[in-house]
Amino acid sequence: MELKVIKKSIYSVPDYSKRLNVAAYIRVSTESENQIFSFESQIKYYSNLISRNANWNFIDIYADYGLSGTNVNKRKEFQRMINDALDGKIDLILTKSISRFARNAENLLSFVRMLRNHNVAVYFEEEKIYTLNMESEFLLSVLASVAEQESINTSEHIKHGFRQRIQNGGLITGRKRYGYDIVNGNFVINKKEAKVIKKIFDMYVNGIESGEIAKYLNQRKVPTVNGAKWNRGRIREYLINEIYVGDLLQGKCKNIRVNGEIKQVRNKNGEKVLIKNHHEPIISREVFDEVKQILNQRNTQKTKSVNLFPNK
After folding, report:
1. In whole angstroms, how far apart are CA 170 and each of 4, 81, 178?
2. Residue 6 confidence (pLDDT)
3. pLDDT value at position 98?
4. Do residues 121 and 93 touch, judged by C-beta distance below 8 A?
5. Is the whole model's pTM more than 0.70, yes or no?
6. I need a labelling partner for 118 at 20 to 30 A (CA). Which of 32, 53, 252, 281 fits?
7. Sign of torsion, CA 174 177 181 187?
8. Measured distance CA(202)–CA(136) in Å, rounded
9. 3-state class (DSSP) for residue 14
């Protein structure tokens, strides 16, 4: 007599016969042409898939665009979906793969368990994992760890590419700097904003402190780069920024991983690269050096006047 043990498979699919409120979650991490196509095709695919099933009630497509999977806090659509699920609006969430849902293993398991405790299932199509099956948790944790490690490896490759571009004098970010527009990866002077920068340096050289300069600009309703008010800190930031003499310091900030999530912090002790005469200057080096000297003098005076009665 031959005995054959048939083990229950943890690979399963949702019950298509039940009446369920169904949604889908989509995420792409970059804005490249291929990713844009993938983003649009996934929206179309899940909209059709859910709508075709007579027993499924289409709720929504939650889609985060151009965002990393490691940081849940920045994924507004993901958070909206979780809140809707916990409010009882969703029974089943469809998503392409574990890495699209979350690259942080701890976050993934935390959210899956939270949803399962509210009888909300997640179905990962590529892995064929249906989270209301308790047997799926072990495999899910293993695959989530693999996805997290892939994210770390990708991050290291990107960092290496950034370092190479820095050493070759390339611009590694397209972030707007006040006084310049970025055109095809190059700094081009914005004439209107450059006048403001020149005014700030001129006023400071003539003895007007940064707080008064900010007040002057606010009274005249001069716009900032992000629409906020001018303040002392912003003025000082511009006064010490080497960008206005045509230099570019690369590596001021760096990304670090905290509890599985990526955060950007100031690079205090890490490697930086200063590229001299990188672009057309707005301020002469003579004026920039004079401002630097005044700033140092005022900082020294403030340090000396902190305690009027030392050793008392």
Report:
1. 64, 39, 19
2. 39
3. 81
4. yes
5. no
6. 53
7. negative
8. 67
9. coil
pLDDT along the chain (312 residues), means of 10: 45 69 85 57 90 93 73 82 95 89 76 89 87 65 55 50 54 71 86 94 93 94 88 92 88 57 60 80 94 86 53 52
Distance CA(97)–CA(126), nearest Å, equals 5
Residue 21: closest CA among 123, 115, 89, 121: 89
* Residue 284 near residue 245 (C-beta atoms within 8 A): yes
The secondary structure of 101-163 as a DSSP string is: H-S-HHHHHHHHHHHHHTT-EEEETTTTEETTSTTHHHHHHHHHHHHHHHHHHHHHHHHHHHH
Quote the tokens at residue 20: 């369920």
**For residues 292 and 301, what is the distance between their CA atoms, to the nearest angstrom?**
14
Report the chain's terminal Cα–Cα distance, integer Å: 97
Q: Long-range contacts for 221-230 (Cβ within 8 Å, ≥24 apart)?
A: 222/196, 224/178, 225/176, 225/177, 225/178, 225/193
